[in-house]
Amino acid sequence: MATYVTRRGKHYHFILSIPSDLRELYGKRRVQVTLNTTSQTVAEYQAILLRDDLLEEFAKRRKELRKQDPFRDERIFRLLYGTKHHPDKHLASTLTEQFIEEHRCNWADKTLLNYRQSLRYLTDFLDHTPVDQITRRQCSAFKDLLIKIPRNRSNKEARLPLHQMVKQTAGRDPISSKRVNMLLDCASVFLKWSVINGYTKQNPMEGVKAIIPRRNSSANRQARRPWKAAELDLLFSSPLYKGCSSQRRRSTPGEMIIKDSLYWLPILALYTGARAEELCQLYRSDLKQSGGIYYLDIKETESNSGDLIQRLKNNSSQRKVPLHDLIVQLGFVTWVEEHHHPMLFAIAAAGADGKWSSAFSRTFGRYKRSIGITDAGVVFHSFRHNVLDFFKQSGANQSMVRQLAGHSEQSLSLGTYGQEYDLNAIHTLVDKLHYNIELELI
What we know:
The protein is mostly helical. 46% of the residues lie in helices and 8% in strands. Strand 1 and strand 2 form a beta hairpin. The protein is elongated.
């Protein structure tokens, strides 16, 4: 009797195991059906027909699955030509560095970091696929892998190839859809460049996007806002400004007031409106004096090799920002003169994202939460919102405010022909800033 025919009681049954590679597709391990006959001969004849039909079905499904494999064409190419590399050498892995070198002069450090990460993932995924053989199906499969990248990953995990990282971190909270789309956009720009330079005829990544859930859309996401008066009072009456127990326990009340970057930067931001990166990248020599007015010289500078070591968001961000009299009274100038680090806030190096403010931003965020300010809409950049909101509510000259904040002039005539306000005028504007907080003067 055939192995796929069995007798149970008086009747015969047909049982055939589903191949292991197809079980997930069908959702079961075997096919089992009664043949409704007590005759072994009839049962075996019916079973042969059923077996042939099922084997044909299995072969059909396998063929469909092979066609869905994004690397099928590349494997066939290797089998036919017996080589690992395509003879035209237009591989993503060999073109990405050329692409980056052409564009890096126009990219900020964070942008460069994003492109490097995206294109590393892309080349990991594509292996040795030539750019002119990349398919839409591969791009869709690439998107599906990016969606599974864990939100929080160790440095060791981050260095793993994309497939291996996703496999080892399965089940963890993934990165946001917005982040996935940013990585896809970087890959799409690279492939568009490949089209322009004649390496391929089309950009298969165009239009490939992760769906952003409506609950996480920008319209519903909590926006940054100015600090409320109660929050400012909580921050500036906390142990950081009234006395902490030690350098390591800044949020625990004590007798020590440690004047360092964590102490000074919130004060400077609240009374200048400067961005965190603009402040953190300053050198001691960028604190200057003119006509009895101390000011911060916010500008871009280059190293001897031509690399930018101080960056600005845009051209209008270059400016001179006078110090509020309160900051001088608090002893900021004396503090700067007494420490000898070349950087104004003794920041040793930029972070992995190329930003001088990276480490400070994390430290400030932890401190803010430790004293009970947990609203995600209140961040260091919110101090800038406070400055701009104060001047808006007080009816200040908005052209002067834009110069102080490093915003471009909205009026075409003023932006083209108007002269900058002098330092005295901007200092008078800055000194109007007032908040209901108490800080201990020296």
